[in-house]
């Protein structure tokens, strides 16, 4: 298939481009490098520009695509609280331009990067796709708004579209890893603190109602996420319009991650424990039965050892990340 990947210079997008190319797809990337990296770019045609420029976006579709995979977005939860309009503008308005071009005939299929943040803080675990969507921050609300917009446009026009709701993306693939600034994700922060003395790592609360008192999250290897996107573009014609969780169905605590990282890196890690962060539920875990049954997707690399081993390989070989910030 001829596939347009928005955000293909970013963390999950670049890993998915790598996997698409390995499967023989023709890939083009749309990115403005606002958070992505030129060094993460595959050697494929690049459309450099922002989704906010509607004439640029429609020009990208002059020659229609078989599928669009839409990763491009801002995704820092805290920043979305302090600067919500930045998030509504980039994520929602940018996606509108893209969806409009697809609805005008620019592509046959649409796969969207959504997030577990659309669920907010449900009490009942594991989270199924029918769990009510009550996002608790602007980031999650922008993603839910895009889901609605995509769903309405897809049913009006009649193109198949899938929203993949990822839980916590983690790990690395050959030559490509996680390099966000600021880095707010647990695993890269922990591993970067081992190679960069300027990066601190602490545990936010160890008095939760979990077996070891630290929060539990569902970590999913980016190699598995990449496979799920390929399965989604291949299956979306039959699936139609739907939302699918991408997680392992299992969860790991912060303490388990610290212990695993300590074993794999051979370093002693004894982080400071500080008070809880506001809005951190004790446990967020996906039910992944729908992904298994509809996509035939089974995570193969998302055990904690593989995630930490691959992420450590990236961080220890790239202590400054891609080192391409101005
Ligand atoms: N990382 C996670 O754990 C996680 C979890 C759930 C959902 N997601 C979603 O997955 C997607 C990818 O996440 P990531 O961690 O790879 O993010 P990332 O920041 O590494 O990548 C995003 C990419 O999109 C590009 N981009 C952003 N706005 C753009 C615009 N207006 N025009 C053109 N390009 C633009 C950036 O330059 C970057 O290359 C995002 O939509 C995010 O919300 C991520």
Describe this structure in words.
By secondary structure, the protein is an alpha/beta fold. It has two domains: 196 residues, NAD(P)-binding Rossmann-like Domain (Rossmann fold); 99 residues, UDP-galactose 4-epimerase, domain 1. Helices cover 40% and strands 18% of the residues. The strands form four sheets. It has a seven-stranded parallel beta sheet with strand order 3-2-1-4-5-6-11, with helices on both faces. Strands 12-9-14 form a three-stranded mixed beta sheet. α1 crosses α7, α6 runs parallel beside α8 and α6 crosses α10. The longest helix has 23 residues. The two termini are 35 Å apart. The structure holds nicotinamide-adenine-dinucleotide. The site of nicotinamide-adenine-dinucleotide has 28 residues, from α1, β2, α4, β5 and β7. The site of nicotinamide-adenine-dinucleotide (NAD) has 28 residues, from α1, β2, α4, β5 and β7.
What percent of the residues sit in helical stretches (DSSP H or I)?
A: 25-40%
Strand order of the largest sheet: 3-2-1-4-5-6-11
**End-to-end separation:** 35 Å
**CATH fold type of the largest domain:** Rossmann fold
Low-pLDDT runs of 5+ residues are none
Strand content: 15-25%
Instruction: Estimate the mean pLDDT confidence.
Output: 96
Bound molecules: nicotinamide-adenine-dinucleotide
Characterize the largest beta sheet: strand count, sense, and whether it forms a barrel.
7 strands, parallel
Shape: globular
Q: What's the level 1 CATH class of the largest domain?
A: Alpha Beta
